[in-house]
Design a protein that fits this description.
Number of helices of chain A: 10
Shape of chain A: globular
Number of helices of chain B: 16
Oligomer: heterodimer
Largest interface: A-B, 21 and 26 residues
CATH class of chain B: Alpha Beta
Distance between the termini of chain B: 39 Å
Largest sheet of chain A: 6 strands, mixed
Order of helices and strands of chain B: HHHHEHEHEHEEHEEHHHHHHHH
Helix content of chain B: 55-70%
Order of helices and strands of chain A: HEEHEEEHEEEHEEEEHEEHEEHHHEH
Helix content of chain A: 25-40%
């Protein structure tokens, strides 16, 4: 059953009561919250995700709720709980949905150490996956959203998940997190995109999430091999040209963007070194999305 | 006493893990993660050859916890090397305590265990020199508040925690295992005198002292934040050293020498009660005199029975919050006389309020 098939009132009731077990990529997350923002966000942005059957195993049991004490009422706040433990400081109540997103990212980056988890977006076309690593603010989510809006498959935003078993990328299509000016830019570039509420004054500025395409979510169990690593950077005077980069240098860039690289240790190095052997690597400075998408399409045109 | 948690059941009878359905596994992983025993559970099931019986979904989390524990072991080994190198010019005994000690001594406790920080014990007269050398090598005091500095330096058995400026790891430098203000007074010089080598230049406490320190930390000093994890440590130590010649004879004798009979009594009692730890009856008789008088004994059984359980929603019972609060107050009461304690707790409470911005 998909989230969208659940009437909104039921969704709200389930979230406030027994909770909702949501399948996303490699994990099942059990979510509880009586906050309407959380229900609305899930209903809008996770409509194509499926619900897990009752009585199974959930990887994470999370809850979004007001903190104990006065801040329940006075300048209300929200806390993220993983099994009663709260890893973060509370945030203003209005940021409940972004907090769920950040909390889920934290769960995955902290507790899936049979995978190397990198700070990167991943898009795919056919069975060719492209890793887009990059520092926050480099413009990888924007580029990812633009590509996805033009028919690329959303593999994962925010984190690339590489299995230690077989070196394959594991899909995790969740809402794409867009910040500040990017929100406007993507709304213009992909007018049909479903965009969640804009949350102002978060620690990352204004944040809004774009709903992942139904097709990407449907294929969330199909892993793929990385074939390209492209490190994007938005620059107003960027020429939108793919500049080849050495594999060794790009491997180090992946390592620098590792969430749990130091935890996984030597095995992680071996898996990433194997991964990079199969990849062509580029740096990519882009100024406008139209030519950026064209450059990516051209990259893969050589594949056929 | 209410029914034990699923985690306790499995710790006592690992074979139970082979019979669990997915919802029970769900609960077991949650409880074990909360108790910081997920990595230990992996080790335990591996020892018993039960990993093949674990379904794939929970196995992901057991294996992840093992990977994480190994990463922490690497970190702690490296820290130990750095600490020893920094302190080498002083030519003093450096005794590693708790987690780092279990790791350096190659004890089964270190397998799958999570470490929060590194603890060392050094001779008190050299404390200033130790702090100076550590600071030269990048360890800086974390509690910069003048009140905290004075609190630690005047009353406590350790320096304010040090954090390495680049690696961000935390080091606690102890000169004793209990505060000077505590009700019990073990002599640190005796602990140092009996310390045994563990690898190059590192020392750890002798087996009886290691057990006594672990018992003291849990039952006389701690706030039971990681009660069950610490009890599992004790259980593993007792099982491991229990096969050594002379260990069981030495343990109660040493407890008497160090004024630590009461913590040893509690440790043996609750290890047996909750984890079925084998303890020879002669040893139980030897520490029986250290038990509190009967009404208090019954109360403490109830309190520790609750306080040592997993602090997870699925294990809550009526009176849990009260039990934990009483244990918290007890730990402070044992730490300091009331005329020092009350101003200290008031100060902590007012600062907490200030930090929350209320």
């Amino acid at each position: 059953m998909r989230v969208a098939e659940l009437p909104p009132a039921d969704l709200r009731r389930r979230l406030a009561g027994p909770g909702l077990a949501l399948r996303t990529g490699p994990v099942t997350v059990h979510i509880r919250s009586a906050l309407p923002d959380v229900a609305d966000g899930l209903s809008l942005l996770y409509g194509d995700h499926s619900l897990a059957r009752e009585g199974g195993f959930c990887d994470f049991h999370v809850r979004l709720a007001p903190p104990p004490g006065l801040r329940r009422w006075f300048r209300p706040q929200v806390c993220f709980y993983l099994d009663g433990h709260t890893p973060f400081k509370p945030l203003p109540r209005s940021q409940a949905f972004p907090m769920l997103e950040w909390g889920l990212n934290w769960c995955m980056a902290s507790f899936l150490n049979r995978h190397v988890i990198l700070h990167a977006a991943v898009v795919a076309r056919g069975d060719v996956a492209v890793i887009l690593p990059g520092a926050p603010g480099a413009g990888k989510s924007t580029l990812c959203a633009a590509l996805v809006g033009r028919g690329w498959r959303l593999f994962s935003d925010e984190m690339a998940i590489v299995s230690l078993e077989d070196g394959q990328l594991v899909p995790n299509p969740r809402p794409v997190s867009l910040k500040n000016e990017s929100i406007r830019v993507i709304q213009d570039f992909v007018p049909e995109a479903v965009m969640g509420e804009a949350h102002v004054d978060t620690r990352k500025g204004t944040v809004a999430h774009m709903k992942p395409p139904a097709e990407s979510v449907r294929r969330a169990q199909e892993s793929a091999r990385a074939r390209y690593v492209v490190m994007p950077r938005y620059r107003p005077q960027g020429e939108g040209v793919m500049v080849p980069e050495g594999r060794a240098a790009m491997l180090m860039a992946l390592v620098d963007n590792g969430f749990n690289y130091s935890v996984v240790g030597a095995e992680g190095f071996r898996v990433l070194a194997d991964l990079i052997e199969d990849c062509r690597c580029f740096r990519f400075e882009y100024a406008d999305l139209e030519s950026a998408v064209a450059a990516f399409d051209a990259l893969l045109a050589g594949e056929a | 006493m209410s029914a034990p948690s699923l985690l306790l059941e499995v710790l006592c009878q690992p074979a139970r893990a082979g019979t669990l359905d997915l919802p029970r596994w769900d609960l077991l992983v949650r409880q074990a993660r909360r108790a910081e025993l997920l990595g230990h559970l992996h080790w335990l099931l591996a020892q018993e050859g039960l990993l093949p019986a674990v379904p794939p979904a929970p196995l992901v989390h057991l294996e992840s916890a093992r990977v994480y524990a190994r990463a922490q072991q690497r970190v702690v080994r490296w820290e130990a090397r750095c600490i020893l190198r920094a302190l080498a010019p002083l030519e003093i005994p450096v005794v590693f305590l708790k987690g780092a000690a279990y790791l350096l001594a190659g004890l089964p406790n270190s397998e799958g265990r999570l470490f929060s920080d590194v603890d060392i014990l050094v001779p008190r007269p050299r404390l200033e020199a130790v702090e100076r050398e550590l600071m030269r090598h990048g360890w800086m005091s974390t509690h910069l508040d003048a009140y905290d500095q004075r609190y630690y330096r005047t009353w406590m058995h350790e320096l304010p925690p040090l954090r390495h400026i680049r690696r961000r790891t935390v080091l606690d430098v102890h000169h004793n295992i209990l505060p000077d203000t505590a009700r019990l007074h073990p002599r640190a010089s005796r602990l140092l005198a009996d310390a045994v080598p563990a690898g190059r230049n590192a020392l750890v406490l002798s087996p009886p002292d290691m057990v006594l320190h672990s018992a003291t930390h849990l039952f006389h000093d701690g706030e039971l934040e990681r009660g069950l994890r610490d009890l599992v440590d004790l259980d593993l130590l007792l099982r491991h050293f229990g096969t050594d010649e002379g260990f069981w004879e030495a343990l109660p004798r040493r407890a008497a020498e160090l004024d630590l009979q009461r913590p040893l009594y509690y440790a043996l009692r609750h290890c047996r009660r909750l984890l079925d730890t084998p303890v020879p009856s002669a040893v139980l008789e030897a520490v029986a005199d250290a038990a509190p008088p009967p009404p208090l004994r019954a109360l403490m059984d109830v309190l520790f029975g609750r306080g040592l359980e997993v602090d997870h929603d699925s294990c809550r019972a009526v009176g849990d919050g009260l039990a934990r609060w009483l244990l918290y107050m007890r730990s402070h009461y044992l730490r300091m006389p009331l005329y020092l304690l009350i101003p200290h707790l008031l100060r902590k409470a007012s600062r907490r309020r200030r930090d929350r911005g209320e």
